[in-house]
Every structure is written in structure tokens, then in C-alpha cells.
Amino acid sequence: MSNTKTILVAPLHWGLGHATRCIPIIRALLEQGYRVMIASDGAALLLLQKEFPQLPSLELPSYDITYPKKGAHFKWSILSKLPHLQKTISEEKKVIGALVAEGRIDGLISDNRLGVRNKNIPSVFITHQLNVLSGDTTYFSSKLHQKTIKKFTACWVPDVAETPNLSGKLGHLKNLKFPVTYIGPLSRMQKKDVPIVYDILALLSGPEPQRSLLEELLLSEFQGSGKRVLLIQGKVEARQKRKTIGNLEIVNYMNASELETAINKSEVVVSRSGYTTIMDLAALQKKAFFIPTPGQYEQEYLAKRLKEQGLVPSCKQKRFTVEKLLKIPFYKGLQEFNPTANFKELFRLFERE
């Protein structure tokens, strides 16, 4: 195999989940001898640059996704941005087209970036959302998304094909019209037996202003609760900052290995019900409590599904109180799915001449 091929890995910047779940893929590419270039924007790009400082990186145009303060307005906020999104996608295609024309890249792995594809080289799309939930417009948003996925060489879904699985109807279509490979849940984390240091780890992420709104709520609930709490703000900045307020330890961000240690050292995790977080907590077999981002149908669906399965309790953001965490022992918690990704096999796609 010619090990000199360069693969561009480009996650969407929408919270940090798309970037963090690309970490095991980038590690696997490097282990198999590929060169890797990383591309994204905002905090997602910064996170990958901190994780892989030795790799060349590229800033892509921003999709610029924010959440309205009222969750009910989320869908209309996204719809109003459609012209901007379409412009960004065509700008992405131009950037990628230039890299391909210059012979700088030989393959693409896009995690939900719709314009990171090129018909002249193998282009992979990673998503756990073959169906895009959007309330009464779900049929149309799903069809539109599937139409775009078909334009890629391959689609990898980070889940298992059979039940039980983690993504439910998001990642499983009844009549598939294009080839999909279930690569198993992706996580950069491993379970370790270490002494418990924190009663609660609060893990924040996602676009503003909802990230800050949840931070304010958790700080007021946890202060003076008598619990040892580590709050990770999910703000990727130039340098790490820590402070202590009473029973709370607050840190702006952690890299993958620090976060893995912190979660292992925590009794329970309070976080959004983002799919990447669910995969990480399943790998670490952690008990959790989920507060889905208001108005984000996908997180609301995942939280409801895990609650109904008796795995993880959850509630709406406006209803959260520290007392709700007393429900956690009555739920089974997330269990690990054995990692099934055969990267050597998956990467064969890039070896086709």
C-alpha cells in the first residue's frame, strides 16, 4: 500500500462532538501510515489543533450555527440561515476543489460538512443522522439530507446495525437507497478503574447562548449542594484556566486524555444528550443525567429514548434541579458496545486507484 496518501478530516463546528469523535479516526489513519490534514472552523478546529499539534490544518468557512434563547424558535432560526448555509457549502466545495486540483489531498472524511466532497477522490460522509428530526418537517429535512449523502462515495454511521443500538431511528432507515456502513460507536475514551474524586462532573458543550444558560443554571444549583463538583465549561481557548468556588472546581476545557481521566474519576455525569457524549459515556460505562438542548429535536429524541429504555434519566432545562439527580441510581446507566470499527478495511476505500 502506498502509505503517502493524504486524507483530509473535516468535522462540522456545531458544539464539539463532531470534532471529538473524529479523534479516534485521525489516530487510526496515522497508525495505518496515512498523512492527515485537519480542517474545520472555530472551537472545533482549535480542539483538533491542540490534540494533534503536529498536523497541518486548514480553516474552512463557518456554518455559523447559534441557538435562539427560546428552544421553540430553533427550527426557524436554522431555516432563516439556509441562504448562508448554501453559500458556505459552495465555498467549502471551492476550497476542496483547489486542494484536489493541486494534488494536496487523496481522500476526504467529512463529519457532517456537506460541501467537503469531490467527485475526483474518495469522499466519506460520517453521520448518525440518516433521518434529521425537525418536528412536522422531519420527512423533508430527512429526504434533503439523504439526497446530499448520496453524493458521497461512502457513508459511515458510528453505531451498530442491529438492536440494541445507540441512535435508534436517527441512524437506521427502513429502505436504504444508498450504501451505508455501520462502523460501531466511536469514542476516544477507555474505562479505567480509578478512585472516585468527584460526585458530579458537569460537562458543557454546544453553541451559544444555550451553553451559557445551562452553565448559569448548573452553577446556581450545585453551589452549596455539599457535592464535590467538577464543571467543564466546554470553551476551547488558547490556554487552560481553572478556578475554585466553594465546592465547585471550574475548568474552561480539557483535552481528550484529561477528560477521560476526569470522567473516570466521577460518580455521575450531567450533560447534554449529544450523540458523541452518549458514545463516550457508553465506552466508560457511566451513569448520567441528560439535559437536552432546548428545541434540538435530535437531543430531545435521544434523551427520551434512553429514559424510556431505563438507561439514563433526563429532564427539560427549565425543570432541572439538583434533586433530580436522586433518580440516577434507579436507571441502569450506559453500557459499552464493543468497538467494532475495522479501520484497515474501511480505509481500503482510499487505496482504490
Spans where pLDDT lies below 50 across 5 or more residues = none
For the terminal residues, how far apart are their CA atoms?
11 Å
CATH topology of the largest domain: Rossmann fold
Strand content: 15-25%
Strand element count = 13
Mind telling me the CATH superfamily name of the largest domain?
Glycogen Phosphorylase B
Content-based structural category: alpha/beta
- Fraction of helical residues: 25-40%
Number of helices: 10
Which CATH architecture of the largest domain?
A: 3-Layer(aba) Sandwich
Radius of gyration: 20 Å
Question: Tell me about the biggest sheet?
Answer: 7 strands, parallel
CATH class of the largest domain: Alpha Beta
Fill in the keyword field for this structure.
single chain; 353 residues; alpha/beta; Rossmann fold; seven-stranded parallel β-sheet; six-stranded mixed β-sheet; 10 helices; 13 strands
Please outline the helices and strands.
Blueprint: E1 6-11, H1 17-31, E2 35-40, H2 42-51, E3 57-59, H3 74-80, H4 82-101, E4 107-111, E5 123-126, H5 138-149, E6 154-157, E7 180-182, E8 198-203, H6 210-222, E9 229-232, E10 242-245, E11 248-251, H7 256-264, E12 266-271, H8 275-283, E13 287-290, H9 297-308, H10 343-346
Parallel strand pairs: 1-2, 1-4, 2-3, 4-5, 5-6, 6-7, 8-9, 8-12, 9-11, 12-13
Antiparallel strand pairs: 10-11
Helix pairs in contact: 1-2
